[in-house]
Amino acid sequence: MAYQSTFGSGANSFQGFRAFASRRPPSYNNLYWVRFRKIPNVLSRNIGTAGYFKDFFGANNSDTAGLSLGGPGSDKARMLTYYANDVTIPSRQLTTGDAKTVGSLYRYPTGTTFSEISINFTLPRTLETRMFFERWMNYITEDSGNRVSWYKDSVCDFMDIVKYERGGVDPSNNSVNLITPSASNRNTVKWNQVTGAWVLTNIFPFNISNVQLTNGQAGTLSMEVSFYYERYRFYQTNSIGVSESVDAYPTNVAAEATLLQAQAAAAGVGPGGTTATTTVTAGGNGKVI
């Protein structure tokens, strides 16, 4: 006899849950990509080191090298991408004010605030990742001279946290078939699909964690770097019925929103971007395999 649900509660169906999970599968937390997009002026203006620091940023990676080498074009950029172990996705919170005349207190929104984020990096044997953030912070403000650089010179204009899911398509040809390993193509690259991206603007590191050394059992060395930023925007890869307008402002005052949307399109996370390699363009950001 069929089970009749209580009015308003819906049917308690395991088959319905399975069907729903197949249509809207849960997201995995271990498929992502981090990219610092533009070198800050405090790093590019240091004579003799500009070329060295430039290689840490995505804008220096070529599309061809990214495809052939399997990721961002230089090993320095890979240290910030492949060795980013744990990434904190930024949070958004509304600030509120209180009002009470007669009766219960109520709150009203007054603005928006964003959380700091942190990234845990595995350190290479050269310790170049540690050196990179040490120099960045020292060039922002040096403790020996007690001087501080200009804000716009200190920040990285954009940092991308790109989210992937399993099951992409091969972007190197026009086929829309999923690439699945088989007995005849075990070594075929399995492309992941971009499902969204968090684009952070004007970001800079403000804390490098301590690093623990021990004479006990050997383990990989890592450090955590915390960042401040102005704001972030979250983008998805296709239109799901939500307006593509970034901000709910009139167009005559939405210049910043237009800029952020253009940057998202450059990152391949605007409408139409569906594969891992759409996050990188021939403008010099490499392909991700």
What does the model show?
This protein is an alpha+beta fold and 289 residues long. It has a single domain (29-96, 106-279), classed as Roll (Pnp Oxidase, Chain A), CATH 2.30.110. It has helices spanning 14-23, 41-44, 50-54, 63-69, 75-81, 128-140, 151-154, 255-266; strands at 32-36, 84-87, 92-99, 106-114, 117-122, 141-142, 147-148, 156-165, 193-208, 222-228, 231-236. The strands form 3 sheets. Strands 1, 2, 5, 8, 9, 10 and 11 form a 7-stranded antiparallel β-sheet that branches. A two-stranded antiparallel sheet has the order 3-4. Strands 6-7 form a two-stranded antiparallel ribbon. A hairpin with a 4-residue loop joins strand 6 (141-142) and strand 7 (147-148). It is globular, with a radius of gyration of 23 Å. The termini are far apart.
Major sheet attributes: 7 strands, antiparallel
What is the 3D shape?
globular
Low-confidence stretches: 59-71, 173-179, 249-254, 270-289
Mean pLDDT: 73
CATH topology (fold) name:
Pnp Oxidase, Chain A
What is the overall number of helices?
8
Number of domains: 1
For this structure, what is the CATH class? Mainly Beta
Order of helices and strands: HEHHHHEEEEHEEHEEEEH
Supply the helix-strand structural class.
alpha+beta
Radius of gyration: 23 Å
- Number-wise, the strands total 11
Helicity, in percent? 10-25%
C-alpha termini separation: 52 Å
Strand proportion, as a percent range, falls in 25-35%
* CATH-defined architecture: Roll
CATH superfamily heading: Hcp1-like
Summarize the entry for a quick read.
This protein has 289 residues and is of the alpha+beta class. The chain has helices at 14-23, 41-44, 50-54, 63-69, 75-81, 128-140, 151-154, 255-266, and strands at 32-36, 84-87, 92-99, 106-114, 117-122, 141-142, 147-148, 156-165, 193-208, 222-228, 231-236.
